[in-house]
Amino acid sequence: MIKFLPLVVRNVARNKIRSLFTCLSIAVSLFLVVMLYSFLTVQDEMTVASRVYNRLIVMNVQGLAGNVPIAYVDRIRKLDGVRSATSFSWFGGKYRDEKIVFGQFGVDPQSVADVYEDYVVPPDQLQAFQADRTGCVVGALLAKNKGWSIGDKVPLKGDIYPVNLELTVRGIYDGSSSIDREMLWFHFDYLDESLKAARSTMAGNAGIVVLRAKSAEAMNRLTEDIELAFASSDAPVKALTEKQFQAEFMSYMGDVRAFIRYTSIAIVIALLCVAANTMAMALRERTREIALFKAIGFSQANVLSLFLGEAVVIGALGGVVGCLGAKLLFATVDFSKMLPGLGWLYVPWSTALAGVALAASIGLVSGVVPAWRAAHLSVLEGLRKVV
Amino acid sequence: MVPLKYNLRSLRARKVGSLMTVLGVGMVVWASIFAFGLYAGLEHTLTVSVNPLDVIVLRQGSTAETASAVSESAARDILALPGIATDAEGRPLAAPELVAIGYLPRRDADGNTNVTVRGVVPASAALRDGLTIVEGRNFTPGVREAIVSRALSERFKGLKLGESFKVQDAMFQVVGYFQAHGAAAESEIWTDQRVLGQVTNRTGSVSAVQLRAASADDRQRLIQRITADEQIGLKAITEKEYFAEQAEQSQFLRIIGQIIAFFLTIGAMFAVANTMYGAVASRAREIGTLRALGFGRASVLASFLFESLVLCLLGAIVGCLGALALGDIRTGTMGGAFTEVVFAFNFGPRVLLSGALLAIAMGLLGGLAPAVRAVRMRVVNALREV
Predict the structure, then answer these.
(1) Which chain B residues contact residue A251 at CB under 8 A?
(2) Quick one: what percent of chain A has pLDDT higher than 70?
C-alpha cells in the first residue's frame, strides 16, 4: 500500500485545477459544517467544564418566568452542604439603541465571586464593586465589544422592569474560553430598592438562585432538600445542575439543534456528489492507463486501493484546509462584534478533527463506485478505448 | 448562436456526471432554502394579517406584552377615547388583555417551555382578522376553559381538545381549536381575561390594550394622545411596529441563513466549475469543429455558460421540489417575549426564488472560467486533439 503513495499523490496532482476545486468545494462547505457544529459542542463543553464547581440552579417550578422570592437566598445558604449562594436576576435592559440585549444579572456582590470561582475578578476590583452600590462587573469579551474600561458609566433602560439603572464599571472578569465572558453583574439590592421606590409589584424577585455546594456528594441531597424545603410555599422551586439547566434552556430554543443536523446532512450529501463526480472524471480519463496497469500485473486490489487512496487524499486535503482553517480563523479573528451573543463561540479541536475525519470519509465513500469500476475494468476493452 | 439543443444533448451524453452535479447543486439549494424558509416563516407569522390601523398600548419602556402592565383605570380611560373603531353594535374595538406565561411540557421532546396564555375579552377576536373557531366551541366566560390553535396543541401536552393543562396552580380545559391564518395568535392559549386575572393574582391591571383606530388620522391622534400623557406612563405603537420589534429579536436566524447560503454557494461554484472544465476538456474537438464551422467566440462562450446554467437550474428545481416535498413543517422557537412562537417554514415564491438566484450565481460564476478556456482554444490545435 505505502509504496503506492507517491503514485496516489501524483495522480492527485495530475489535474491540478480539478483536484484544487474539489478540495476547495469540500473545504468551504466543511468550514460551514464545523462552525455550525461548534455551536452545539461548545455549549456542551461549557457545561462539562463547569461540573467541578458543584453549582446548582434553583428556579420556580413554573420555569424561568416564575418568581423566586429573594428571602429564599438566605434560607438556601443555611442549608447543610451549601457553600455559597447568590440571586441571579435577569434584568434585560436596553443599552443605548442596541436591539440585542446582553445578559445583565442582579447578584449578591459578597457571594457571586465564590459561586463563580472560575470567573476571575482581580481582588481590588471585586472590593470596589462590593463597595459601590451602583457598581457592576462585566465580562472581558463584553467590555472589549462595548469599549468599556473601569470607571465607565453603563446606563441600562428597563424593559421587563419599570426602572432604569445607572451603573459604573468597577471590575472586569475573565477566565478560560469555556466560561461565558459576556455577562454583566450588578447589585441585586440596587434593582430591588429602585423597584420599591417605584412601588412596583415586581420587587423582591431573585429570578433564579445559583448556589455552590461544598462537594459533589452534597449536590444530590441538596436537590431534594431544596425542593422539599419550599414545596408547600407560594413559590415551589426545583434545583437543576448546570447540565440540566442547559437542557432546559435548549428546550426554549426549540428545534435549532435538529435543524443544524439536517443542514449538515444535506451538505454531506452534496459533497458526496461533488467528490464522486471528480473521481468519475478521473476514471474516464485514465481508462487506458488503468488497463495498462492491469496488463503489467497490477491486481484488482491494487487498482482499487489506488483509486480509493486518491479519493481519500482529496477529501482529507479539503477537510484539513476547511476545518483547521475554521479553527485558525476563530482562534485569531474576534467575531464577537459581528455575532452579538455568540462571543463564546470557538472551534474546539475535537470538532475540527471530526470535520477532517468526515471529509476523508466523504472522499472514501465517493471513491467506492469509480474505484470498483476501475478494478473490474476489462483489460482488452480498456486498451482499445480512445479516451 | 450555437443551437441550445447541442448543450442539452451534451448533458444527456454525460449522464452520470451531469446527474451528480445536478444533485450536488440541488442539495445546496435545498439547504439554503431550508435556512431561508425558517426565518421567512417566523417573519410571516409576525406580519401576516396585522391590520395597519391596529395599535397596542404598553407600559412605557417595555417591548413585549409579557413585561408590560396597564392599570385597569388607565385601560378604561383608553377605551373611552374618541377615534376608536366600533363594531356592528357600536361597541369600541378595543380590548384590555392580560398576558401570562404558561410552562407546559413538550409533546415530542423532553422539557417544558414557556407558552403565552392570553386573557381576552369579546372584542379581542374581532381585532384579529380571520380568527375563527374551527372545532369545538369558544370558552365560557367565568369558567376555567381555554381555546388554542391546532398547531400549538400538537406541540404541547394537555392542549388537545378535551385535555387539561395547568397555569400556575389552576387547571384549564381545552374546549375548542381556533385558527388565525398562521398569525402570532396561533402561538397562544386564549382564555377569559377575568379568570386568568384571578388565577395569576393579577387583578387591578392588565398587560396591554389592543385597539383599532377608525382611520389613519385617528390612529396618529390616539398614539400621540396616549404617549403624551406622562401621568399614566404608557406608550402606544402600531401593531406593525410591535411585531417588527419582535422579529428583530430573531435577526440572528436571518444572519445564520445568509452565512449558510453564502458558503454553500461558493462551495457549489467550484463543483460546477469542475464539471464544466471536464465538459470542455472532453469536447475539445467539437469546440474546434464549431469554430471551424464559423461560430464566433461569443457564441461558444454563451453556449458553455448556457450549459452550466441549465445544470444549475436543474439543480435548483431539485432543491425547490425537495423543499416543497417537506410540506408544511411546523416548528417553534423562543420569540421576543421569551415564549414559544409556533410557525411553519415558509417556502413561498420569494424563498424559492432566492434559491434559484443562488443557482444562477453558481452557474454563471462557476461556468465562466471553463467557458473562457473553451473560447481561448486555438482552432487548429483543438481539431488535432483526440
Answers:
(1) 106, 109-113
(2) 96
List, for residues B239-257, the tens digit of each pLDDT value.
999 988 888 877 878 888 8
d(CA A142, CA B346): 35
Interchain contact, A63 vs B101, CB within 8 Å = yes
Q: Tell me whether A21 touches chain B (CB under 8 Å).
A: yes
Task: Decide: residue A73, CB within 10 A, 0-12 exposed, 13-18 middle, 19+ buried.
Answer: buried
Question: Which residues of chain B make contact with A26, given a CB cutoff of 8 A?
Answer: 267
Distances (CA, A) of B5 to A219, A222, B284: 74, 77, 18
Look up residue A106 and give its DSSP letter. Answer: E
pLDDT at B17 over 90: no
- Range with lowest mean pLDDT among A29-38, A74-83, A283-292, B131-140: A283-292
- For cell 353594535, what's the residue? B89
Q: Is A62 in contact with B16 (Cβ distance < 8 A)?
A: no
DSSP characters for A128-193?
HHHH-TTEEEEEHHHHHHHT--TT-EEEEE-SSSS--EEEEEEEEEB--TTS---EEEEEHHHHHH
Q: Which three cell numbers stand for residue B231?
A: 401621568
Closest residue on chain A to B59 (Cα): A162
- d(CA A55, CA A116) in angstroms, rounded, equals 9
Dump the DSSP string for B356-376.
HHHHHHHHHHHHHHHHHHHHH
Residue in A159, A263, A267 nearest the CB of B62: A159
Min Cα separation B87/chain A (Å): 33
Query: Quick check: B182 contacting A, CB < 8 Å?
Result: no
B34 touches A: beta carbon within 8 Å: yes
Whether A269 and chain B come into contact, CB under 8 Å, resolves to yes
* C-alpha dihedral sign at B79, B81, B84, B89: positive
State in Å, rounded, how far the first CA of chain B is from the last one. Answer: 25
Report the 10 Å Cβ neighbour count for A331: 10
Distance CA(B107)–CA(B68), nearest Å, equals 30
Gap from A26 CA to chain B (nearest CA, Å): 7
Angle between helices A242-253 and A16-49 (to 10 degrees): 130
Q: Cβ contact (<8 Å) for A267 and B31?
A: yes
Distance CA(B361)–CA(B363), nearest Å, equals 5
Cα A207 to Cα A17, A67, A69, A308, B101: the distances in Å are: 59, 6, 8, 58, 15
The set of cell numbers assigned to A116 is 463563580
Which residues on adjacent β-strands are paired with residue B171? B166
Task: Check pLDDT > 80 for residue A99.
Answer: no
The ranges assigned to domains in chain B are 4-47+250-384, 54-214
Query: Which of B20, B21, B65, B318 has the highest number of chain A CBs within 10 A, making it the mutation to test binding with A?
Result: B20
**Interface subset of B 9-28, CB within 8 angstroms of A:** 16-17, 20-21, 23-28
CA-nearest of A346, A281, A358, A370 to A322 is: A358
Residue B48 pLDDT: 82
Q: How far A317 CA sits from the closest chain B CA (Å)?
A: 15
Q: Is the pLDDT of residue B204 over 80?
A: yes
d(CA A210, CA A242): 10
C-alpha span between B7 and B290 (Å, rounded): 12
Note whether B381 contacts A: Cβ–Cβ < 8 A. Answer: no
Instruction: Using CA atoms of B307, B312, B313, B316 in order, give the dihedral in degrees to the nearest 10.
Output: 170
What's CA A294's distance to the chain center, in Å? 50
* Burial state string for A24-57 with b = 16 or more CB within 10 A and e = fewer than 16: bbbbbbbbbbbbbbbbbebbebbbeebeebbbbb
- Ordered DSSP codes for B136-195: E-PPPTTSSEEEEEHHHHHHBTT-STT-EEEETTEEEEEEEEEE-TT-GGGGEEEEEHHH
